[in-house]
Design brief:
By secondary structure, the chain is an alpha+beta fold. The protein is built from four helices and four strands.
């Protein structure tokens, strides 16, 4: 299976279990790896035979900016399901970063990574 990766998609969302997170929001960063067969697209040089990653990026940002959830695990699942709606995408790896998570000790990042497929 071939891979198309999008790294560092950024959007402001209001996800989290604490009222301050819901009210003020914060930046979330998403990395995606889409699994699909790109041979037909490459052979014919045809965008219609692969995934349009620009559209995927816009849809993912809309999910992050959309309806709030408590957990980034839930957000990752919503993003994965959005990606799998694209016909050629057979598998997706989603990593959601929450670099401004409300943690009381120094840290660089919090991430949740999931892998989902059509099977």
């Amino acid at each position: 299976m071939d891979r198309v990766a999008l790294r560092g998609l950024k959007a402001r969302g209001h996800h989290g279990v604490f009222p301050k997170e819901r009210e003020e929001g914060q930046t979330f960063i998403v990395d995606l790896v889409l699994g699909l067969d790109t041979r037909a697209a490459a052979a014919d040089d045809d965008l219609a035979k692969t995934v349009h990653y620009g559209i995927v990026a816009e849809e993912v940002v809309a999910v992050v900016a959309g309806d709030p959830v408590d957990l980034i695990e839930t957000l990752a699942e919503r993003i994965a399901q959005t990606c799998l709606k694209h016909e050629g995408v057979q598998e997706v790896e989603v990593c959601v970063h929450k670099p401004d998570a409300p943690i009381t000790v120094p840290f660089d990042d919090v991430t949740v990574t999931i892998i989902r497929s059509r099977v």
